[in-house]
Every structure is written in C-alpha cells, then in structure tokens.
C-alpha cells in the first residue's frame, strides 16, 4: 500500500464515490435505464461518503473517526450490493424492498390503483451491463476494495497521519 497522507486517501475515496454517483445518474437519466429500489439504496453510501469527506476537509477534525464511519458505510454498501447480486444470480429471493414504491404521496384508492399499474423494475432484472457485468457486480467489488483499503488505513492511522 502506498504511503500517502490520510487526505490523499480521502480524496481518492471522494473521487471514486463521485464517479460512481455520476455514472449511476448518467445511466439512469441519459441512457434511460430505470433502477430498481436496491439500486437506489446502493447509492446512499456513496452520497454519505461524499458528505463526510467534505465535512472532514472543512473541519479537519478527528479523521480517524471519519475513517471508521467510512468503514461502516462501505460495509453497509458491501452487504446491500452482495444481497442484490445474490438476487440477480438467483441465490436469494426478492424481498419486499424490491417492490415497495413511495406510498407517502398516495391519498386515495384511485391514486393507489394508478400506482399499482406503474411497472416497477425487478431487483433480479439487470437492465444495464458493462463488459457483461451488472452495476451491482461492480458495486460489490468497489465496496469490498474500499472496506479493505479503509481498514488498512484505520489500523495504520499513525503511520499515514500528516
């Protein structure tokens, strides 16, 4: 592992998170591939990591705690993306999360019926692939690499500190 300072590692993670989110939104809005609910949930850790890293650069306090939070965030991302990968591969059955729509806006039975007629994207259907792999597969790999990377930084914090 290269001996950069903590800020350099955080910038790399910020870049990876930003590219991941930009790519997801580009694929959704410009290429027209509708994400499933788990795909949307998988974006949350990247957004949280961006916010945490920005806050870190603004305050420059307690970087070790920020790294610990990033480990938790990307561990969550790894679990969710592995679960989603398992659904895509048929190892797990789809859960209720895959079919839930935003029901907070529904006020009447007519609106509920309209909502039920809208086709939802199944978590097991892959609508977009890169080199034959789903985005979920890439997310599993990215999350795993980031968790390992962050654990090494956390364990060797004093060595990488400014």
Describe what you observe in this structure.
This protein is an all-alpha fold and 162 residues long. It has a single domain (6-160), classed as Bromodomain-like, CATH 1.20.1550. Helix content is 66%, strand content 2%. The chain contains 7 helices and 2 strands. The protein has a two-stranded antiparallel sheet. The radius of gyration is 18 Å and the shape is elongated.
Question: Key terms for this structure?
Answer:
162 residues; 7 helices; elongated; mainly alpha; 66% helix; two-stranded antiparallel sheet; Bromodomain-like
Quickly describe the structure.
By secondary structure, this protein is mainly alpha-helical. It has one domain: Bromodomain-like (Up-down Bundle), CATH 1.20.1550.
Which helices and strands appear, and what pairs or packs with what?
Layout: H1 6-30, H2 37-41, H3 44-59, H4 63-89, H5 109-117, E1 129-130, E2 133-134, H6 135-155, H7 157-160
Antiparallel strand pairs: 1-2
Helix pairs in contact: 1-3, 3-4, 4-6
Instruction: Give the CA-CA distance, first to last residue.
Output: 16 Å
Total helical segments: 7
H/E topology pattern: HHHHHEEHH
Please name the CATH topology: Bromodomain-like
Shape: elongated
- Mean of residue pLDDT values: 80
Instruction: List the domain count as a whole number.
Output: 1
Strand order across the largest sheet: 1-2
- How can the largest sheet be summarized? 2 strands, antiparallel
- The poorly predicted ranges are none
Q: Which strand-content bin applies to the residues?
A: under 5%
CATH class: Mainly Alpha
Category by helix and strand content: mainly alpha
Rg estimate, integer Å: 18 Å
**What is the CATH-assigned architecture?**
Up-down Bundle
For the secondary structure, the number of strands is: 2
Q: Give the helix level as a range of percent.
A: 55-70%
């Amino acid at each position: 592992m290269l001996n950069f300072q903590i800020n350099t590692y955080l910038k790399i993670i910020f870049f990876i998170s930003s590219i991941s989110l930009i790519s997801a939104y580009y694929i959704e809005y410009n290429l027209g591939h509708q994400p499933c609910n788990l795909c949307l949930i998988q974006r949350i850790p990247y957004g949280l990591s961006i916010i945490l890293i920005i806050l870190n650069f603004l305050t420059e306090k307690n970087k070790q705690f920020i790294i610990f939070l990033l480990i938790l965030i990307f561990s969550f991302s790894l679990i969710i993306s592995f679960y989603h990968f398992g659904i895509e591969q048929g190892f797990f059955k789809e859960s209720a999360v895959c079919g839930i729509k935003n029901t907070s806006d529904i006020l009447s039975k007519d609106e509920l019926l309209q909502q039920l007629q809208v086709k939802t994207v199944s978590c097991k259907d892959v609508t977009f692939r890169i080199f034959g792999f789903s985005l979920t597969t890439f997310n599993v790999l990215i999350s795993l690499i980031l968790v390992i990377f962050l654990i090494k930084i956390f364990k060797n914090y004093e060595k990488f500190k400014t």
